[in-house]
Predict the 3D structure of the following.
Amino acid sequence: MATQFLRRFFAPRSLVVIGASPKPESMGGIVLQNLLQAGFAGPVWAVNPRGYQEVHGVTCFRRIADLPEIPDLAVVCSPLSGVPTVLERLGRRQVRAALIVSGGASLDADSSDGRALRARLQRATLRSGMRVLGPECLGIAVPSMKLNATYASQPIGDGSVAYLGQSGMLGNAMIDWAAGREIGFSHLVTLGDSLDVQLPDLIDYLNQSGRCRALLLHLEAFTNARHFMTALRESSRNRLVLAIKSGRTPEATLSPVPPTAGVDRRDSIVDAALARAGVVRVGDSDELFDALETLSRLKPPKGDRLAIVSNGVGPALLAIDRLIDGGGRLAELGEGTAEALMARRLDVSRPGRNPVDLGGSATPDDYLSALEIVTRDPNVDAVLVLHAPTRLAPSLATANALIDARQRLRHRLLVSWMGLKEALEARAACNRAGIPSYVSPEKAVRAFLHLVRYRQVQHLLQETPPSLPFDSSADSRQRCHALIDDALARRRDRLTHQETGDVLAAYGIECAPSEYVFDLEQAERATERLQGPWAVKIVHRDNCEPFRYWGESRRQAISLVQDLEQPGSVVDAVVRLEARVGEALPDSPIYSYCLQTMQRGKGSLQLCAGITRDAEFGPVIVFGMGGYKVDVMADRQTALPPLNMRLAEELLDRTRAGRLIREHSEDPDSAVGWVARLLVKLSQMASDLPRLKGLEINPLLLNHEGMMAVDFALDLGPASTQAIMPYPEQLRETVTLNGMEIEIRPIRGEDAPLITHFHTFLSERSIRYRYFHHKAVLSPRELSQLSQINYDRQMAFIAVRRVEQAPSQQGGGVGTAARQEEMLGVVRVWNDSDNIRTEFSIIVRDDLHGIGLGRRLMQKMIDYSRQVGTLVMIGTILSDNLPMRRLLTALGFTLRTNVEEGAVEATLKLNEPQSDWQRHRLDAALD
């Protein structure tokens, strides 16, 4: 339902408080008094069955049916047991939004009629046709609208920060923390038990708000990961988003989530999801406001190299420990910087090296001299100033000196004023001047790491990746689906070792040469085809399950015999393995025996890679060290598919395995490329095969010759949904126009070079028709926004053809082969979050006008938008774009000229509205 009726929560024209009471300590009394004190301008009524004439000066009615008008918003403060009846009565009165602040009762305990209160509330919500926020929430505050429908203990200041949380009490604490730091809110909402309105709905609504410059999130659980990720990624492209997550351990989770196979710390998946959405995650409430203060005042640095200037080495060493532990780097000062510092005798402990220790006799002028030198060093990304008060350098005097000189200091400055009495005044002065200040060296370094982390997650969100190393084909997908269908038809919930090898081969993943045999005679003949020495593994049901580590050494001993030199030894091993499994695992049916050549003597690194499934986020890619003799979970890191090469390398670099590869491989670039390509293939597999529940490749051997999967297992489950919508492969099609074979397909992040090359074929007039002004060059950020789209809310179809190119000319295409893709045209749409309206744009190369390509692209987009249920397509074109006007008229668009703007507004109705609310939104969109 997304943002349906949410305006009535955030900008109501009138409201009623159900359960309002003259008792000042009652919930209804507190909420009503907060509304009045905030100065809400619209009509306010109260309802209380006790028959009060008024409550706190507000007219009170005995029944909801007696209200003189239909209020936009009902704030329900009556006892929770009676709220289902209240919701039904509000529904009959055609109220469309209800905020339930009532709480204090278990929603899942059975009542006298045998039904849990949660079920009764849900049934009443559905029958009423309302949007319901809560129960057990703090309420809603929008200070700019003079709305404070909360039971907060103090007024809520106006500002540009929005807070969305799930805990009412934590929301109350946030108000007090913010007031202490003089931070105001544009919106403040807590959801409580979230029976109807969910967190992604609220994020979608705030994405339409210009007042929200930063978003603070308190997260507990995720009910719709795709909606959450879609809304969050859209939000973080336009504003700073910070998140704190409770329930990081099973003990702190109110609604336990099943463990994720192959992942020891489930919270790492939340880390990966938030990073993928461009969000900075913090560890505690205090850190939340520290990060907000830092990121709202300083732009992220280009790198992670920090220089430290201090009047003592002790505080600097504390800061360095925190910096290295957090993944930052201590900047290495350049030769010129070192010489300048030593020439002025400013560095006493380790002259010319970082940290710069000014010593206890340093004065404010010494600080400025050192900073003017250090901030000019190109090897430094930011500078941390540490100050302990001394007679020669009082805190406030030093702070004022920094403030006066800050325009001359080129780099980003963070300052830690240590102490309490003197330091308070210095911190206050710097805060007023816009210089972030912190109480300790550790907190200052943590703030710097927030800046680094924000740059990293935004880079991942907007970076243009290199070309794809692999495309799955319809034939390979069909073969894999056939294997899965056959296994399920045989009532198996996993594939055999041989079938899993076939799936890997279909995706271009090399497996160790294997022979699968079923009896002793076949085993002996297999040794003639396969070079020794050999290993024999018995394939039975229990060892075809991925991520099964309990008793692994025992299972290996039962199922595997290695280093067999003679064919007769192989036959003996088959006999022994059958006996072992029959005795130890009598209920595990035997499928076959796998004979492989031993893979030793090549200096291989054992890795583990695979796919697992999380109960909240769906398919997850895992990677780390492999093998069974150590805890393989210790190095395991996770990422959400779909992956490209950049994201795959980022996953690799988070692991110890990645560090070993970069430090010890003969050719690190090639090794990293091999691993990254394999991870992208696994990502594609997760998208193509939704019934794949888990896949583990362990060990995966990496050496100078390449990569090889030695052992693997794959199990099956119900079809899953990815948290991030994958590339819509099914929307590709090939057409022939003017004798050219043209593929029309959805755009992908790797197409940025195609867009750049495409723009060289556009005239100034074509560019003006598309952008309404001349745009000769697209910036990297614009290229990222045009190529990396959110398929849930956007779509772009590009027309491409294959052309012959000499290697020296390949800069304009994608790939390394002689036949390159060349972009011919593109059509785009941007949907609103409720899928009511979509706005289109289209552009075709100048040398291809008149062959019908524009019409073909527009028709494909119209068909797509109809299929996904969008109600109306709109667009704006310049009045002198006559060819486009003729095309849109032929396609059925209604054209309306806007004389003042010199433009034509085009509208095409696609689908009929299915509700009054959709009809209202559609009328507003067309107005």
Remarks:
- Residues 333 and 353 are 6 Å apart (CA to CA).
